[in-house]
Amino acid sequence: MDERCSHRQIDDIVTDVVAAMKQTAKNNIPKSRFNPHLKPFWSAELSSLRDERDDCHRIWSEAGKPSNPESVEKRNLKAAKKVFRREYRKAEKKYEDAQNNDLKRAHSIDQNYFWSLVRRARKKEGAEIYPVVNDDGVLVSEADSIRDAWRSYFHDLAQPAENDEYDEDFKVSVDATIDSIKNGEIKWNSPHMNEPFTSKEVEKARKKLKWKKAPGWDEISTEHLRHGGSQFLKLVTVLFNKVRLEHYFPVNFRRGVRIPLYKGSGKKKEDRTSYRGITLLSIFSKWLEHILLGRAMDGGCSL
Q1: 3-state DSSP helix/strand/coil % of the chain, to nearest 5
Q2: DSSP-derived 3-state class of residue 162
Q3: Cα-trace Rg, the chain
Q4: What whole-number distance in Å separates Cα of residue 74 and Cα of residue 80?
Q5: What DSSP string runs through 263-282?
Q6: Could you read off the pLDDT of 40-76 as tens digits, one per residue?
Q7: What digits encode the pLDDT tens for the residues 256-276?
Q8: Which bin fits 195, alpha (ψ -120 to 50), beta or left (φ > 0)?
Q9: What is the pTM of this model?
């Protein structure tokens, strides 16, 4: 790499590193196979209907993906999807009814067996997409409509607005601190604050990253970083030094995925105010932040 890089070059390096890591993981990490116990209601009939649906989708794609409702390919695909969904839901409901009957029967026969079934059922619970009320007061259930409703909600939530509970003094304090940093009024006591990052320093920060955390938009997790090897560590050290030298935080480090988390306590699930939004950032940005935080703390900075 050249001594200096443009902002575009740094962004391209980040993109290439992420792509290389994902491809390496795909080539070397064993793939899990279909586990029938994850969908115990699955049957040969569902497999046949799924294959028929996929064939209709392939034919529709080869025909140029016509959107005209009168298109034969479009009608066949729509019909195949409808049949598959209907039979899938019917088989799923039949299985759940059988499980519920087992619970009722076990409750009066064997308490230990009853609670083992309850615990097994709880483990199968997963994330669900709930309908929400949009800005027009309409309950929407389609994935795209739900996504648009959340996008609008979080956008408005981030806009300045008059609120009696808003801590204006805290905002003024934060703005003043940021201005002080920009104007150079806050001095770092650490003698190596502006020195290049070392591989040892980068490795130390990597060990502080937490395991089993949700990845950001790039789908790179802590586990990817920790198994990267020595050459990968050297590459990241070079990358972080380019970021430091150019005083530029890459675009992909600033991108995040906003997701809503249900607050619980019996709140209405269709009400968007019943959720707390969190942003999943790139693990690379967290890695770099750990390095900068370590240097700031060494210099006695209270930020």
Answers
A1: 60, 5, 35
A2: coil
A3: 26
A4: 10
A5: --TT--TT-GGGEEEEEEE-
A6: 888 889 999 999 999 999 998 888 888 887 889 989 9
A7: 888 888 888 888 888 998 998
A8: beta
A9: 0.60
